[in-house]
Write a structure and sequence with these properties.
- This protein has helices spanning about 20-30, 30-45, 55-80, 90-115, 120-135, 140, 145-165, 170-200, 205-235.
- The protein is mainly α.
- It has one domain (about 5-235): Orthogonal Bundle (Farnesyl Diphosphate Synthase), CATH 1.10.600.
- Helix 2 (about 30-45) crosses helix 7 (about 145-165).
- The longest helix has about 30 residues, at about 205-235.
């Protein structure tokens, strides 16, 4: 079994309790960052005049499955460097889980594309492309960078939330998606050096500072989306 200091099992978002496999699985989901992505879909949904709550829940679930689970597993499998989560799970186990969650996400998406929101197909194609191009570092890693991360994990989820409600694109939706993309860009700009410092053990004070920043940006984003949701429910 992989030694703890060779994996990310001691990250701040990994539970400090339970068996190692449980802790690794939870860590693999990167819950604070997955929460950010889901929050962006909520923010996008709430931009619409009238809210179809089933669609809001569906797009949040789609991203939880496709990006929160499947994309993170793809990133673990496709990493050209050392496995970030060691060998607690076999590649076959990870591939099965990745395929199952991705299939479930697309099944939900296809239902809404056919029944009510054909424009969502554009998002489905783009996010499917980025899931493989970014996480498996395809095309010589052309899309594995901060810019495309911000687009796929920040801008598109917010736009998807709005499209899911309206089957259209508006200036305000594009503006908000640019803002959520910027937030994701800030997160990944902090995350990369933080990960390197945690692995090397160098400059612990700098690593601690970056960790505080990552906590603030992830928790702040989730809290903002929840506040928007609460206000919308109260006013409806």
């Amino acid at each position: 079994m992989t030694a703890k200091n060779e994996t990310r099992i001691n990250e701040w978002f990994v539970p400090k309790f339970g068996p190692a496999r449980f802790r690794v699985f939870v860590g693999l989901l990167f819950l604070p960052y997955t929460g950010m992505c889901i929050s962006f879909t909520v923010i996008g949904s709430l931009l619409a005049g009238d809210i179809a709550w089933d669609r809001a829940g569906a797009i949040a679930l789609i991203y939880a499955l496709a990006l929160g689970v499947s994309a993170h597993i793809a990133d673990s499998i496709g990493s050209k460097k050392a496995k970030p989560w060691g060998s607690y799970f076999t590649k076959s186990q990870l591939l099965v889980l990745m395929a199952a969650t991705l299939a479930a996400a697309y099944a939900i998406g296809i239902y809404y594309i056919i029944s009510a929101v054909p424009l969502l197909a554009v998002i489905a194609v783009l996010e499917g492309f980025f899931l493989f191009a970014y996480n498996f570092e395809a095309f010589c890693g052309l899309f594995h960078n901060n810019f495309w991360f911000a687009i796929s994990w920040g801008s598109l989820p917010a736009l998807a939330g709005y499209i899911m409600q309206t089957d259209s694109v508006s200036a305000i939706a594009l503006g908000v998606s640019a803002a959520t993309g910027f937030v994701s860009y800030l997160e990944i700009r902090m995350s990369r050096p933080y990960k390197a410092l945690k692995k090397s053990g160098a400059s612990p004070q700098r690593a601690e500072s970056l960790e505080k920043g990552l906590k603030a940006i992830s928790v702040g984003t989730i809290a903002f989306a929840l506040a928007m949701l609460a206000v919308r429910i109260i006013l409806s």
